[in-house]
Each structure stands twice: as structure tokens, then as C-alpha cells.
Amino acid sequence: MNMTPMIESFVMHFGEMGSRWGFNRTVGQMYALLVVCEEPLSANEIAEALNISRGNVSMGLKELQSWRLVQMHHVPGDRKDYFKALGSIWDMANKVFEQRRKREMDPTLSLLRDILLDKPANEQEKYAQSRLQEIHDLLENITQWSEELQRLSPEKMAALMKLGSGVGKVLDMKDKFLKSS
């Protein structure tokens, strides 16, 4: 498979972004290629397009499958396995966010809960625990909020995003109203 300059530009950039989202550059490139290809691709086609080893493709596909971002397809009469990106772009964003939460926020929340259960030994630890409680509460709120967002339909999520700063204005108006009451 030959990539056009436009597709190659996107695939290379997505690889760099993938490394910031929790998977390596090559896995990001593989996923980007699958996202923009209408038809499922074989591991050999992916390796050829990205100029990477077949083994690297195999490991990357396993990682993408563990993230539930790609699915294997079979073509009648062909023994090769083919792969396609799963779901919509909203599905992808939800899955990446969910995996990042599980890998980054959940362990941090678990550690904070354990630390907060300990009785502080001195004033320094008491102060530290009060700060850790603030961090815990923030992460807990973010987790609950993100879970609620993930339950929204793509249409409702798009509408919410379009509201943007308008939400802040509504909250400011609410505060003014409550103060004047």
C-alpha cells in the first residue's frame, strides 16, 4: 500500500501524538493508518506502508487490540488476518480516555486512598495529608465527570463541546442571581 502525502503526513503526526497518549509512536502510526483506510489491512500491508518489521506490526496490533481500538477481519478465501479500526472517532476517543484513566488516574487514586487512611505521625504529615486529600478529591471528581461524559451519545457530547465557554457564562449568571436573592 502506498500512502499519499496527505495520509502520510497525518499518520506520522498521529504517531507522535500517540506517544503522548500512552502508546508508542509506531503503534500510533499503525492506528492512524487503520483509521483512514476504508478497507481492512493485513499485517503485511501495514508493515509495507509504514516500512516497519512484521514482528513490530504484530506486537503493535496486539497492543491496539488490548486497547479495543482495532478488530480482526477475515476475508473469504484468504488465510491472512486483516485489521480495521473499531467504531467511530467518538468511540476511539472514549477508549483512549478510558485506558489512560485506568493506567494513570486509577493507580494514583488507589495510592492516595491508602495514604489518607494512615494516621499522620506529625504536623508535617497532617499538612501533607490535607493537600493529598485535595488532590484525591479533584481526581475523584474528574473521574466521575469523565464517566458521565463517556455515557453521553456522540450528538450530546458534540452539543456540550459547542457550548464551550458559554457554560462558564451561565454559571456566572447563576452566581449573580443567587447573590441578589
From TrEMBL:
<keyword id="KW-0238">DNA-binding</keyword>
<dbReference type="InterPro" id="IPR036388">
    <property type="entry name" value="WH-like_DNA-bd_sf"/>
</dbReference>
<protein>
    <recommendedName>
        <fullName>HTH-type transcriptional regulator</fullName>
    </recommendedName>
</protein>
<comment type="similarity">
    <text>Belongs to the GbsR family.</text>
</comment>
<dbReference type="Pfam" id="PF12802">
    <property type="entry name" value="MarR_2"/>
</dbReference>
<feature type="domain" description="HTH marR-type">
    <location>
        <begin position="22"/>
        <end position="80"/>
    </location>
</feature>
<dbReference type="InterPro" id="IPR036390">
    <property type="entry name" value="WH_DNA-bd_sf"/>
</dbReference>
<dbReference type="InterPro" id="IPR052362">
    <property type="entry name" value="HTH-GbsR_regulator"/>
</dbReference>
<keyword id="KW-0805">Transcription regulation</keyword>
<keyword id="KW-0804">Transcription</keyword>
<dbReference type="InterPro" id="IPR011991">
    <property type="entry name" value="ArsR-like_HTH"/>
</dbReference>
<dbReference type="InterPro" id="IPR026282">
    <property type="entry name" value="MJ1563"/>
</dbReference>
<dbReference type="InterPro" id="IPR000835">
    <property type="entry name" value="HTH_MarR-typ"/>
</dbReference>
